[in-house]
Amino acid sequence: MRQPLRWPWPDFDVDDVLAPAIAVRVDVSETRAEVPDHWHRKGQLVFALGGGVTCRVPSGLWMVPPHCGVWVPSTMKHSNIATANARIFFVYIEPGAADLPDRCCTLSISPLLRELIVELSDCAPDDARCGFLGKILLAELPRMPVQQLHLPISSEPRLRRIAEALAEDPADRSTLSEWANRVALSESSLARLVVKETGLTFGRWRLQLHLIVALRELASGASVQQVSGDLGYESVTAFITMFKKALGKPPARYLSDIAQHGGSAFSA
C-alpha cells in the first residue's frame, strides 16, 4: 500500500517563493509513498540520495536511481512514487533561471551538485547563503549529462492497458501474439502500434520496463537474486547478462559506480 509523502511544511507553496532555486528534503517511511498527479509553475528536479523514485509524466515513466535526478519542466503534470526508506530532494527552479531542457529527462548528478542540493535544503529561501548556493547550482545543473532511463508510454488505450498490466506483473512473459489477442488486435497490428507510439519494438519496450523495475528495486535494497525472480528470469546469470548488455556493467557495479561518481560514466 502506498502512503502520501510527508511534506515538511503543510502550508508551503513552492510557487509563492520567488527565489531562483530552492530545495526541499523529504524522507520516506518504511512504506512506499506517492505524490499524485500535480504540476508547478516552477520546474522541478527530483533527486534521490538513497532509494529510488519513479516519475510518471504523460509521455513516459522516468526512473530516478540513487545519485541521479529527473528533470520535470515547468507546468508539466507528473506524479512521483518513492521506494521505502528513500531520501528524496525536490529542487524547484524558476522558469528561465537556467538553460535546462524543455522535456522530461534523467540527469546525472555530480558529487558537487549533490552536496549543493543537500546544503540548499538546509537553509531558508530568504537566507543570503541560500541565494549564493542557488546560483552555483543553476550554473552546474545544465552541465549534467542526460541518461536514457525512461519507458516511453502512450495515451493509446490498448498500449496503456498493456503497460499498466506489465507494471503490476513485470514477470508476465506473454508473447506479442498473446497480448494482441487480449487487446483484440492482430500480432502485426500490435507490433506496428508499439513502434509507432513508443519508437521501440515490443521486446525492447518490455526490456526497458524490466530495467526500470530492476533499478528501482535494487536501489531500495532488494538482492539481485530477488529481482531476477520477480522479473521472471530463469536464472540470476540470465538477468545479469541482460542488465550488463543494456547498461554496460553488472547491477552491483553499476549502482556502486553511480554512488561514487554521480552517474557521469553512464550518460547517453
UniProtKB/TrEMBL annotation:
What are the UniProt keywords, alphabetically? Transcription, Transcription regulation
SUPFAM superfamilies assigned: Homeodomain-like, RmlC-like cupins
Q: InterPro entries, alphabetically?
A: Homeodomain-like_sf, HTH_AraC, RmlC_Cupin_sf
Where, if anywhere, are coiled coils annotated? Answer: none
Q: Where is the HTH araC/xylS-type domain?
A: 160-257
**Keyword Transcription regulation set for record:** yes
Q: What is this protein called?
A: Helix-turn-helix transcriptional regulator
